[in-house]
Amino acid sequence: MQRASALTAPDRSRPDLAVVLELLKPITWFAPMWAFLCGVVSSGGAIGNSWLLLLGGVILCGPCVCATSQAANDWFDRHVDAINEPDRPIPSGRMPGRWGLYIAFGWTLLSLLVAAPLGPWAFAATILGLTLAWAYSAPPFRLKENGWWGNAAVGFCYEGLPWFTGAAIMAGSLPDGRVLATLALYSLGAHGIMTLNDFKSVEGDRRMGVRSLPATLGIDTAARLACWVMAVPQVVVAVLLFAWNAPWHGGAVVALLAAQGALMARLLAAPRERAPWYNATGTTLYVLGMLVAAFALSRMGAPS
Questions:
Q1: Residue whose C-alpha is closest to residue 139's, from 88, 73, 90
Q2: Three-point CA angle 65, 68, 74, nearest 5°
Q3: Is this model's pTM higher than 0.85 or not?
Q4: Is 214 exposed, middle or buried (0-12, 13-18, 19+ CB in 10 A)?
Q5: Alpha-carbon radius of gyration of the chain
Q6: 110 FRET partner, CA 20 to 30 A, in 143, 218, 275, 301?
Q7: 290 contacts 256 by C-beta, under 8 angstroms
Q8: Gap between the Cα atoms of 243 and 103, Å rounded
Q9: Residue 26 gets which letter from DSSP?
């Protein structure tokens, strides 16, 4: 009877696959995969026989690089998570020992292996993205301890680098300058999205000395700042699209921003309670604007 119990008892020396998947947080993969697809669209190139490269790029941006960042962040944030979210895999004990760190290392190597066949620009972007992912969470840099630098790094990794990767794979070279300008603006706007995401951990951040913007500026000020940071880059994108002779696309970005403005007004009435709601509504409109801008760029062709 004892032997049978030993055979059926779970092995606590290594995590279950379901726990590993929870650590890698598939729900967070959507943003970089969407940005990658925006990069593909913005290049204006025909997909042709590039399906395998594009599939590799989607896997690289979501299940590889983004998942790596999630594993590294959970490992180095395990003490803060014990306060804010004690049910997460590492503080709850469901991810035993140092497995969280081992998975972060393993996924880093996997990301480099997936990136290698995708071309030099994609490989360089992957190295930069992985570097920022580790610098965001790990000492001595631990960029997340400063809300300004940390949010900028995450916004760039979630929006700019995947967009760049998709455009670079399609072009086989450095993307068009207009593409670079657009992805930079949407990366800057994503800084505000990251600020809203920090509202859920204010108590733990203050107790552990993490200087997130909600913890240092206060909820209301951080919420207003986040709204401005999200809105202003979109205004610039719309102006550029009008200047680049894409008035219908520029008008669509303006309309999406106007809808976001209405949602922002409701957010600011109770920012902490409504931040998750806004991330499910206003952020959706934000990323739709990215795709609109990508289609506009795809119609422009190479600059003269």
A1: 73
A2: 145
A3: yes
A4: buried
A5: 20
A6: 143
A7: no
A8: 47
A9: G
